[in-house]
């Protein structure tokens, strides 16, 4: 992901990713990270949702735009 400096830029970028497959790396603290692959499903004013197949079941997970700004999560387009 390129470096975004504001939440508005991040929202616009996520809007462009709707329907595309991405890899999300979530920082869980104490040097623990979780990497997941999914599709950006919808973008709302304060968060966006990702659809993922985890153990054969479809799950939806939401993330805040602030998480990207603070580097709690990293989004990479496939």
From TrEMBL:
Pfam families: VEG. It comes from the Bacteria. InterPro entries: Protein_Veg. This is Veg family protein. It comes from Thermatribacter velox.
């Amino acid at each position: 992901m390129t470096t975004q400096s504001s939440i508005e830029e991040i929202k616009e970028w996520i809007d462009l990713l709707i329907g595309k497959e991405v890899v999300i790396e979530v920082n869980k603290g104490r040097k623990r990270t979780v990497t997941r692959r999914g599709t950006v499903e919808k973008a709302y004013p304060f968060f966006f949702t990702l659809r993922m197949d985890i153990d054969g079941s479809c799950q939806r997970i939401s993330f805040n735009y602030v998480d990207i700004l603070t580097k709690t999560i990293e989004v990479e387009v496939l």
